[in-house]
Amino acid sequence: MRRLCIYFFYDTEGIVDDYVADAVHAMKEHCEKLLVVCNGKLTSQGRTRFYESGADIVYRRQNKGFDVWAYKYALDKTGWEALRNYDEVIMMNFTIIGPIHPLSEMFMAMDRKGALDFWGLSVHHGENYDPWGIMPNGYIPEHLQSHFICIRKSLLSSVHFRNYWANMRPINTYQEAIGYHEAIFTPTFEKLGYTWDSYVHSEDLKPLTSYPLMFRPLDIIRDRRCPFFKRKAFLLSATEYAAAGAVSAPKDTLDYLLSIQYDTRKIFQNLVRYSNQVDLRITSNQNYIVETDSNWENFIPHITNTCAFVVYVDDLISMKALTEHLVDGHDHPDTFILVSSKLGREHLDKELRNNPFVKSIFEGALQDWLIVASKISSHYDRLAFVNVRENSPSMYPNTKYGLVKHSLNSLEACQDPFSNTSAVLGKNGHIGALATPVPVWWDQGSWSRWNYRVFNKASTLLKRQGVYVAIDRSKPPYAPVGWGLLIRSSILEGLLQKTDIDVLRKNSTEVIFTSIPFSLQSNGYLLGIVYTPQLITEERSHYQLTDALYRNPETTTPPPPVELLPTSRVYWRSENDGYLEKRSVASEYTLSPDGNYEFEVTLPSNFSSLRFDPIEEGGVVCANITAVINTKKVILKPLNAVSYKDSHIFITSDPQFEIIDGGKKGDHLKVICEKMSFFTSGDFVPVRYGENSRIYGNAVAQAIEDMQRHYKKRFLG
Fold it and tell me: CA–CA separation, 308 vs 541, rounded Å?
């Protein structure tokens, strides 16, 4: 059978990751010819990699029209006469990852189907409403998903297929790519009499979800042998998964991939380059409970099973806890101690003299742990760092003592060379470091460390290191400040080689340690959280649960008011790039007591389009909003809102407008909204702006109720 494959590719940086090369290589084995169409950037290394993976031709075009116009471009380039010579033409894109099962299974199964005019990998079962207001019949019909569709000769050579592409309208947004192509492709040709089917049948799952590949992944990739899974499975927010009743879906996918020994590093190699690590860690549930008996012996040979502790202590309380830990009658890893004073060093020399686990005691500041680490990292596979310093003036001595014991005990599994802590790193190639959990009785979480000062200084430090990843003021990283960190020595050495240690030492501990997760991310790794048996025994669980319930505000008191940042942000993109944090500018807006909103900013760069975010950390309702660049009124197109009459309702923490027909560098943008109401995403609770508190829940609830009545009348009769 003669097959042509058109593979659509897009990456903001033009980098071709391993999973893309794998897909191209696997498809080439089943296709006579393979074309790659790249929208936007493509590095020279990426182009070379496509050819090495089996691509026959690599096209690069403007980043316009999403995958729809990339397919049209390849079809036009090939020519309709030449296309008639193929038995099948496959259109697929980079949004699916695999194969994880042999593609021969899929192709043989579909060959046996016989007289089909077109077929696809999977089906979206549709919705009885139109979320974007662009569907021709007011709802989303059942359809083959456009990430993989195969066109057979009977349809390929028809005038209907040719006219479909000749009349394809411009595609400017993701929503239009679905509404103008993906969702209507199948019903359009079915109505014309053409027959179709999907490789994966999921009709029995339709009562549970319209999108089985995303929300029922084990049913699809494990039980029905789907060879590809969605890249987007790790990009949705935890809120979106919770709303779909599928919070375990990403972790289920990850666990299954690990069970078949798929290299998960290939997934996160791509995702960590521009996704926020907080989102990735939460969605994919990077929490690990280590057990005393390892069941992963097959993964142990991947590591050298050597570990060292670097422990910083600064007073008698922390020294007491450390000393008790090292003389408790158990074996411990090689330990290097950094102490803050000469007197402290003399005290520890006396207390720990002849202790077989203590290799050296250094005198210095906390930041000097980097120097200690650089001296010993080449001798160990892993380094565990425990920081027991805490400057909080309100900390009770006994609290600090408990924190030290928690930090040391949480990494205790590292002493065993065959422990599951080692196996976590051996099995999960995408995990570069493990941090100990914040004890629930401890009141200094990530938020207290991620203030404006730390955020700005950490951003500056990361830029000096050449680290450009998604860093967000509203999403504090899980930073190992005040507890423990276990890191692969090879990664730490790489970080130290890229950074002047003296520059690092000039920053505060909060800045250094909040930067570590982002440095990991820039090298293709995530930070995981490790829970040890000491934390999950039955007796300990009672205390943990009691304290967690006490501290969880949702179980004791109404949610506190949410502090909204008094800024709006404008993003810009070039012809081939997406909207990136580093290409944006924020400025304060004004908001009157009755909700009148004004925002002004000078546009700082040349661009092809603009995005305007009225608020960064909450939902918002915008009524009668207008925008002017210089003196020209421009169109504000809501990207993720439900619009009703003159209002746009953003039930999200990241509301976005696209500015159509925007200006140029140096132009003046002004946005005015007659009534802007804030609320937290998903819950109508008080929102605090400045010194005033107001509740907009009733107004939002009423607007949504009106909207629902409107849609019910329009679509349900």
Answer: 29
Q: Phi and psi (nearest 5°) for 505?
A: -65, -15
* Residue (of 617, 612, 598, 618) closest to 674 by Cα position: 598
Q: Could you give the residue ranges of the DSSP H alpha helices within 499-537?
A: 501-505, 509-522, 533-536
Mean pLDDT of the chain: 79
Q: Torsions phi, psi of 375, nearest 5? A: -75, -30
Distance of CA 453 to the CA centre of its chain: 25
Residue 120, helix vs strand vs coil: strand
DSSP character for 168? P
The model's pLDDT over 510-530, given as tens digits with 9 standing for 90+, comes to 787 788 888 888 888 888 877
Which residues are CB-contacts of 41 (< 8 A; sequence separation ≥ 6)?
11, 12, 13, 14, 576, 577
**CA-based nearest residue to 488, from 631, 617, 308:** 308
**Backbone dihedral angles phi then psi of residue 152, each to the nearest 5 degrees:** -90, 165
Q: Is the dihedral of CA 14, 16, 19, 25 positive or negative?
A: positive
Burial class (CB in 10 A: 0-12, 13-18, 19+), 353: exposed
> Which of 75, 87, 77, 92 has the alpha carbon at shortest distance from 27?
92
To the nearest 10 degrees (0 to 180), the angle between helices 369-376 and 489-498 is 120
DSSP 413: G
Q: Is 420 helix (H, G, I), strand (E, B) or coil?
A: helix
CA distance 103 to 92: 14
- Contact between 612 and 659 (Cβ < 8 Å): yes
Whether the CB-CB separation of 620 and 679 falls below 8 Å is answered with yes
Q: Which amino acid is at 230?
A: K
Residue 98: which of 229, 263, 273 has the closest Cα?
229
Check pLDDT > 50 for residue 292: no
Task: Give the phi and the psi of residue 495 in degrees, each rounded to 5.
Answer: -65, -40
pLDDT for 7: 98
Q: How far apart are CA 439 and CA 431, in angstroms?
A: 22
Q: Residue 483: name the closest of 429, 426, 523, 535 by CA.
A: 535
Range with the poorest average pLDDT among 107-121, 141-155, 502-516, 657-671: 502-516
Tell me which H or E stretch contains 359.
strand 358-363
- Report yes or no on whether pTM surpasses 0.85: no
* Local confidence band at 563 (pLDDT 50, 70, 90 cut-offs): low
Long-range CB contact pairs, 320-324, < 8 A, 24+: 320/401, 321/388, 321/401, 321/404, 321/405, 321/408, 322/348, 322/388, 322/404, 322/408, 323/348, 323/351, 323/352
Give per-residue pLDDT as tens, 633-652: 888 888 877 776 778 877 66
Query: What is the three-class DSSP state of 63?
Result: coil
* Phi, then psi, of 179 in degrees rounded to 5: -70, -35
Q: Which two tokens stand for residue 175?
A: 């929503």
